[in-house]
Every structure is written in structure tokens, then in C-alpha cells.
């Protein structure tokens, strides 16, 4: 990937339009998880220390026009606390309010501009709107990997108008993803779990061509078991996806990718926390039961295979991790990946919404090489799709 790094740019006295992703989870006006804000701190510190005048751009939610409950203003105390610096606010991201905010900025100061999605032109990547944004800055710095799968004015369009670079978070994210899939040390294991095959079909089709081992877990493993003619009982299964599952297995075979399915399964008759459970070998499951987790022999098999791997890429839980004790398979596999990462034997990269909470629950989130906070963008990258926000940084005028 060919993009300019913020670290190589002289930003002193320049106005930098920093596209951040402040689309944080919030309830009743309170931010419930500040991970995305905290991860921007290195970029913010860099810009303030180097004397940039920083205007922060972000979306929040899906407002239809100007909608007070989607204003970014309520975030200011959280931003100031996390970033350790004062943050100003402008009530609009273009026009007189934004111009005024720009002219008030001194070197090393930061101002947050109001939600870019208050203008419908943002999502349309409207050239006139993009130009109005571009007129505010000297440099465009994109630090919002998690929004890079959208070709919007502030995520893609701006790179065509201003000298551009990747922020420190975006750079770390791209380097980690590159090390995991584009240019990895082999053998590579991908672990893909989650509910359904249908939502991850493109991910699976891409991965089988690129990795050496593909571990399948969660509900989607049932569909593969079904396609192989195994009993799946009452388990979640997309029977209509059986042909796709077979095609994926054939592609894997041709590409020399070994698909690892559960060798044992944790099964229940009631779908609830602490439901009584029984563990069955994969080939021996009673038809009245349903699978909720990978069993200990499966975790052991993953552990053994990991010994032979140099890189691991993970998306999706191996079981219904929200209901204890059916997080045991996910936890066991996550702890194995963490153990090998800590001892320097593997590079491990994980991402996607539920994956982050599953790894947090497993107590492993800090022991992976990199855990991406991106959801949709991470999945699209795993699908092998070009991300417009990243592409635009690579192919257009780079800041010097
Ligand atoms: P996804 O968003 O596709 O990554 O799916 C995550 C969801 O898959 C979680 O809510 C899990 O509870 C669910 N899941 C994982 N394994 C199973 C399973 N064996 N049966 C039903 N749901 C599952």
C-alpha cells in the first residue's frame, strides 16, 4: 500500500483536516466505550506537538439533516479527557461557523467541526460540498480506517482536493492488515466464526485462496457440517447455503487451504445461559440437540495447529459467547492465540464488531498483535475489496 504517512509531513502552522471516526457507542448522552476516541490520541498529540491547526471531521449516527441528538458537541469533555488537550467546537462543518473556527485556531490547537452527515452531500460525495470542506484546510489527514469502506466526501472525496496522508491510527491499522493478509509470514491461519455463512460468504471465498488453515466455528460451521452430510440437530444452519459451502470447500482444496471444522460440539436442548450441556464428537450428535460452542477437543486441535503457524487472522466468535459457559471455546482459542503472540511466535490480527467484545470477554484483547476497532471496513478488507478511503490516499496527491 502506497500512502503518505503523517510522520513525514511538515504540519507546522498548517490547517489539517483530520477525518476521525467519532461514531462511538452512546446511550442517554453518555459514551459507553471510548476506544475509538482513545486510539486517536497519538495522532492528536503528534499534530498539537508539531504546531498544526487541527480541524476534526467526523460523522455520528445516521442523521437526516441537522438533528440535535446527533450533534458531536456532547463529546467534547470525553475528547478533552482522553486527548489531554482543550478542544474547541464549531456548529457547522462548512460555511461561516467553520471559517470562523479556522481563523480562530492557533498553532497546536484543535477544533471539532459538527457532524458531517448533517449535510446530505457528505454521503453523496458531492463535489461542491467536498470543495467547501477542502477550502478549510491545507492538508487532509485520514485517520478513520473504520469509515474507509465508504466513498463519502470526508472519507474519500477530500483526498482528491488536498495533499493527503494517513494518520497514525490508519497507518498502524493498514500495516497490521498488510502483515496479516497481503504480505504475511506463513503458514497463516484464519479463524472465522459467527452466526451465518451468508453474511461472510465473500470473506470465506477470499480467505481460502490466501490462507493455509481456515478454522470455521460458530453457527456457520453447522452449515458446512450439514453440507458434508453430518447431523446438525436443531442447530442454527442455513441449509440453502449448502452448495456455497461445498464450493468453498472445493476452492480450499484446490488452493491447498485446510479447512478445520469442529471435531466436537457443546450441545444443549435449551438456548439460555447456564443451560445443561453435553459434549459430542462431531460425527455423533443427537438430533434433538443444538450446538452452541466448539468443544475442548476442537480448541486443542486449534492449539496444536497454531504451533505450526506464524500469522493468525480472526473474525467472529466460535460459539454463543454471550451466554456463559458457551464462551469457553472462543475463550480457549483466543487464549491460545494470545499465548503464542506473547511468546513472539505469531502475529495475530483480529477485528469486526463481535470479535472485539468476544476477545475482551476472553481477557485477551491486549495480547493480540493488533485488534481493529473497525466493523464493516474490516470485513470488506477481509473480503479483498478495495476500500475507497484507502485507495484515495494511495492514488492521489500526497502531502509533502
Ligand atoms: P457475527 O455477527 O456473524 O460475527 O455473529 C456473531 C454471533 O454469532 C454471536 O451473537 C453469537 O452468539 C452467534 N453464534 C456463534 N455461534 C453460534 C451457534 N453455534 N449458534 C447460534 N449462534 C451462534
Radius of gyration: 23 Å
Q: Approximately how much beta-strand content do the residues carry? A: 15-25%
Helix content: 25-40%
The CATH topology of the largest domain turns out to be: Rossmann fold
Largest sheet: 6 strands, parallel
Question: DSSP helix count?
Answer: 15
Widest sheet, order of strands: 5-6-4-1-7-8
> What's the CATH first level of the largest domain?
Alpha Beta
The end-to-end span amounts to 17 Å
Ligands, deduplicated: adenosine monophosphate
Low-confidence stretches: none
- Helix vs. strand class: alpha/beta
What does this structure look like?
With 400 residues, this protein is α/β, with parallel strands linked by helices. It folds into 2 domains: 6-170, Phosphoglycerate kinase, N-terminal domain (Rossmann fold), CATH 3.40.50; 184-382, Rossmann fold. The chain has 15 helices and 17 strands. The chain has helices at 35-38, 41-49, 76-83, 95-104, 121-124, 127-134, 168-182, 201-210, 218-227, 242-254, 296-306, 328-342, 353-361, 376-382, 388-395, and strands spanning 15-19, 26-27, 30-31, 53-57, 87-90, 110-113, 139-142, 164-166, 188-192, 213-216, 258-260, 264-268, 277-281, 290-294, 311-315, 347-350, 370-371. The strands form 4 sheets. The chain has a 6-stranded parallel sheet, sandwiched between helices. Strands 11-10-9-15-16-17 form a 6-stranded parallel sheet, sandwiched between helices. A 3-stranded antiparallel sheet has the order 13-12-14. Strand 12 (264-268) and strand 13 (277-281) form a beta hairpin. Helix 8 runs parallel beside helix 10 and helix 9 crosses helix 10. The mean pLDDT is 95. Adenosine monophosphate (AMP) binds at residues 193-196, 199, 218-219, 236, 291-292, 316-317, 319-322, 354.
